[in-house]
Each structure stands twice: as C-alpha cells, then as structure tokens.
Specification:
alpha+beta, Phosphorylase Kinase, domain 1, Transferase(Phosphotransferase), domain 1, 2 domains, 7-stranded antiparallel sheet, 3-stranded antiparallel sheet, 12 strands, 20% strand
C-alpha cells in the first residue's frame, strides 16, 4: 500500500493516532508531534487491523504503524489514549540502553506519545522456525543467547523472554531482533538468559523440540545449565550452547 503524507491522512487514519477513541483535537496535536520527530508518511499495512486500517501490531500500551522518516522505512509506536502510563519516554530510554549492546530495533526518535525505530523485515520466531534448518536455528539461537548475555550484563531484564510469542523477529539475514522493552526492568534479579532458555528449550512445544534436536541436548542438560548460570551469572555456564 502506498504511503500517505501525514497531512493527507483521512479522518479514519488520523483516528489511529488517538486509539482506541476518536479525538480530532488530540489527533491534530499528535500529527504535529509526529512530524517534529521526522516522520513524513504512514503506510497502513500489517497483520493486525483497527478502525478498518491495517497496522503492524497492537498492545495494551500502544499500536505500531509503518511509516517513512529520514529517507527510510520506520515503525512508529503510538501511545494509546487509554495506556496505563503517561509517556513512552521511559520505554525509549530502555530501548536506547538495549541498542547500546546491540539488541532491539534501532531507536531513531522519541517523544511523549511516539517511538520511531528502524523497520525490521522478518518473521516472528515461532513462525520462522518451522521452515528453518537445524543450522539456521542454531545460528539464530546463539545470536539470541549472546544478546541475552549482554542485556544481563547491563542489568536490563526483558521480563517476557520465557514467552517467546511475537517478541522476537528473525530477519532474512538470520539476525534475531528482540522487541517490546516496555515492561523491561532495571531492578529485577531475574535473568534474560534463563528466561530465554526456558522459552527456547524447555517448553513443551515444537520449537523447543526442534531447538533441543538442533543442539543435541535434553531438557535436563539445559535445566542444569540454566541453574548454574542463575547461580553464577558466568558465561562459561552456557558456553557449550554458544559453540
């Protein structure tokens, strides 16, 4: 679908900026806010649909639209009017921190009501894995584990990695991108590595079965490794998974 200039959006398209209600005055304010972040156009495409328009994703805090800014494709997260937080700036800080260790989509701009990051082409992990070879699955899982190690090192805990869901997208270049840092914590004693091991290797799912087969491990093997890592926070506890 062709991208539409911010100033040529229909009333229905503008209503997405104030989802889940229609508020023309607030939508006009948000159009100015969005343009000041460098966003020039929006494209209404994606697997989800609200107000009769297609979008990339919908959550409890915001919806994500595709757009154009800085001469590139971007994703735009819009804070819902009924969100349980008054601003997206705290999430922006966490995403920026994740970016500093090579994780998350690259944040380009942020304001109270919007986040703008590089658009990531790819498939959700649980959809991608069914067509992946064992070699490809190993490559992506190792990439994820290394990201989890770095996030643990800086103390940024995602909190949702044991439930893979749509939190991870795999690009055509076999790079895993972790999304949804809105509920991440800088004070949790949990671990990204152990949560990821739980989600990838231990669940009763086709993905976990294929991951264990690709690495030639059992549930008991990875449970022992996760326990040792949890106790020591040492990379060598899972070194055999990174080889």
């Amino acid at each position: 679908m062709a991208a539409v200039s911010l100033w040529q959006l229909s009333r229905r398209q503008r209503s997405l900026l104030t989802y889940p209600v229609v508020d023309e005055a607030e939508a006009n304010k948000r159009l100015i806010e969005l343009s000041m972040l460098g966003v020039e156009k929006l494209s209404f495409e994606g697997p989800s649909e609200v107000h009769g328009e297609h979008i990339i994703a919908k959550g409890t805090v915001g919806i994500v639209l595709k757009g154009c800014a800085f001469g590139r494709e971007v994703a735009v997260k819009v804070r819902r009017l009924d969100a349980n937080r008054p601003s997206l700036l705290e999430e922006a800080e966490k995403l920026h921190l994740a970016n500093s260790v090579g994780s998350g989509p690259r944040l380009l701009a942020a304001s109270r009501n919007f986040l703008v990051w590089n658009y990531v082409k790819g498939l959700p992990l649980e959809k991608w894995f069914s067509r992946a070879t064992s070699r490809e699955l190993r490559q992506v899982v190792i990439n994820l584990l290394r990201q989890a190690l770095e996030l643990d090192r800086i103390g940024l805990i995602h909190m949702e990695l044991s439930r893979i869901g749509d939190h991870i997208v795999v690009t055509p270049e076999l790079k895993a991108v972790i999304f949804d840092f809105e509920t991440s914590s800088l004070g949790s004693r949990k671990s990204n590595v152990t949560q990821l091991i739980q989600g990838l290797f231990i669940r009763d799912s086709e993905l976990s079965e294929k991951a264990r087969s690709a690495f030639g491990v059992t549930k008991e093997d990875v449970l022992k490794a996760a326990k040792l890592y949890k106790e020591t926070r040492r990379e060598d506890a899972i070194a055999w998974l990174l080889a």
